[in-house]
Amino acid sequence: MRAKAADQTRRRILNAVYQRLVDAPSEQVSMDKVAQLAEVSRSTIYTVFGSRAGLFNALGMDLLHRGGFTDMVTAVLQPEARRGLRDGITANVHMYAAHRDVLRALFSMAQLDADAVGGTVRRLEDGRTQGMNDLAQRLHDQGALRDGVTVDQAGHLLWLHTSFDAFDLLFTGRSMSPATVATLLAYAAEHALCRPV
């Protein structure tokens, strides 16, 4: 019973942070406001998450799992790396689209709150970097890369094509649907990196 109550409290706090990021994306997230929205005391937030940075780390992990991170990893890791590129970018776009407003606020806030939010964004980006470097190596190992494209170059280009900003420029800036964004980014990445079939 106690564990269930603790999980519910944790969920209410995370939901309050989501709400705050969507309702006031240009304002720094106030722990007082989060506590008020979650109907808990400020000290409860620190008891549950340890620190402001701990709260944002938990939010980052929650975003990944609620947004489809497992599906994206499964898509990238399929045996044929070239298909993993296409399906991985598609799953990545859908993950971004699921929480676009929260992600935009987080990426913007990372510049203002480097310790708490910036650290969370850096960890998310470090994971994406490693994943794209691994995919680049698999593309190389399977002979899929174009002549003259190195594994490092492929990793950089995959990182670019899977970035939140690449997604958001097309989704918001060009008013494209997630499916259209996914198709365009996957096409661009595959044609920039891979040998013609």
From TrEMBL:
Alphabetical list of PROSITE patterns matching this protein:
HTH_TETR_2
Q: What InterPro entries does the record point to?
A: Homeodomain-like_sf (IPR009057), HTH_TetR (IPR001647)
**Residues covered by the HTH tetR-type domain:** 7-67
Q: One Pfam family, please name it.
A: TetR_N
- Single annotated GO MF: DNA binding
Keyword Nuclease: yes or no? no
Alphabetically sorted, this entry's keywords are: DNA-binding
Name listed for the protein in its UniProt record: TetR/AcrR family transcriptional regulator
**From which source organism is this entry?**
Actinomadura bangladeshensis
